[in-house]
Write a structure and sequence with these properties.
This is Prepilin peptidase CpaA. The chain crosses the membrane at residues 29-48, 55-78. It is an enzyme of class 3 (hydrolase). GO terms for molecular function: aspartic-type endopeptidase activity. With 178 residues, the chain is mostly helical. The chain has one domain (3-177). It contains 6 helices and no strands. It has helices at 3-26, 31-73, 79-92, 94-118, 122-139, 160-177. The longest helix is centred in the first third of the chain and has 43 residues, at 31-73. The termini are close together. The model has no long low-confidence stretch (mean pLDDT 92).
Length: 178
């Protein structure tokens, strides 16, 4: 594993872990933290890979942020999560952004499943998923009137934990692949 990849992995893990701590504690991810992570990613790639590397890391941030923005628009995710995944992708780099997104999504889905089972609401959650699917097929990305992140009665999880786990798994894959 090259030194720069080790630096990117350590930085992404650090920022994601701090964000997860904030998300667990206060259910918010500070803008200052995500801005610092984004700037750190850009500067690290500029220093290690030059202008092309910095541009590629910016593209990674835009791709990851755009994908998560769709979930935010649909009412299924908070804005802090969108900014965090963009910043972590910026640090991780374009080459590894797909892995970051896949691992984060898989961990997030597993966390949601565990939470639903632990709260005894698995069948209600599955029914809600079908209700969301029908809603979005009919009305596009508009938030569901009841099943959205603003409704405190719905199951909610600190998604920064999933992003931190996705960051860890991406870093682990980088180490395994050398």
């Amino acid at each position: 594993m090259t030194n720069s990849r080790m630096i990117y992995g350590a930085a992404s893990l650090l920022f994601a872990a701090v964000a997860a701590g904030w998300d667990i504690k206060i259910r918010r991810i500070p803008n200052l933290l995500t801005a610092a992570a984004l700037v750190t990613g850009l500067m690290l790639h500029l220093l290690c890979d030059g202008w092309k590397g910095m541009l590629a890391s910016l593209i990674a941030a835009v791709i990851a942020g755009a994908i998560f923005l769709l979930f935010f628009i649909a009412g299924g995710m908070g804005g802090g999560d969108v900014k965090l995944i963009a910043a972590i992708a910026c640090i991780t780099g374009l080459q590894w952004t797909g892995y970051l997104l896949i691992f984060t999504s898989l961990v997030g889905g597993a966390m949601a499943l565990v939470l639903a089972v632990a709260r005894g609401s698995l069948f209600r959650t599955l029914a809600n998923m079908f209700s969301l699917l029908r809603h979005h097929l009919a009305l596009g990305l508009t938030p569901h009137p009841e099943l959205n992140v603003e409704n405190r009665a719905t199951l909610r999880l600190p998604y920064a934990m999933a992003i931190a786990a996705g960051s860890f798994l991406t870093f682990y894959l980088q180490k395994v692949q050398g």
